[in-house]
Design a protein that fits this description.
With 165 residues, the chain is mainly beta. It contains 2 helices and 11 strands. 28% of the residues are buried.
Length: 165
């Protein structure tokens, strides 16, 4: 089973748009990779209990964040390019992310600044295992995207500007 990490996002192109993922076509076999009871925060609010379900749908991995009655879905695909998006249920389309960050010391992954943050040790353990020594001594990994969904910049730790995402 394929479980993409944040790290390949750093080196690949992230082409986000109307054709981000082909999820509206024929149903695809979905396999749950894991379900995690953890904490999440939305729009910079205090963390609250949530459930994250990672689902493999062939070429796309969905991360469903259930926070109370709200659900936010992040989709990640690497075929043919690394692409990440946030599902907008109102428009029924994928929206380009502005940024994605991982704070290894707290096992926290955030999207678009603090729009959606989650403690997800499963996701970051995969990242640590996959990249091993390349992450030794690292704590913060940050990627920013342009309006076309392509990576504008990535940084680590002190190399990341302290400007809003």
């Amino acid at each position: 089973m394929f479980r993409p990490s944040l790290f390949p996002l750093i080196g690949g192109a992230a082409l986000i748009g109307g054709a981000l993922f082909v999820l509206d076509s024929a149903p695809v076999q979905a396999d749950t990779l894991y379900t995690l009871a953890t904490s999440c925060s939305v729009a910079g609010a205090a963390p609250t209990a949530c459930t994250i379900e990672a689902v493999d749908q062939g070429t796309v991995t969905l991360y469903r964040h259930r926070i109370g009655r709200q659900e936010q879905v992040i989709g990640i695909s690497e075929d043919p390019y690394v692409r990440m998006g946030l599902w907008n249920p109102a428009s029924k389309s994928w929206q380009a992310l502005r940024s994605a960050t991982a704070r290894l010391s707290s096992n926290t992954v955030c999207f678009n600044g603090t729009d959606l943050c989650a403690v997800n040790p499963n996701y970051l353990s995969s990242l640590r295992q996959e990249k091993g020594a390349a992450l030794n001594g690292r704590d913060l990994i940050k990627v920013t995207f342009g309006s076309d969904g392509r990576i504008n910049a990535y940084c680590y730790d002190d190399g990341c500007p302290s400007i809003p995402n």
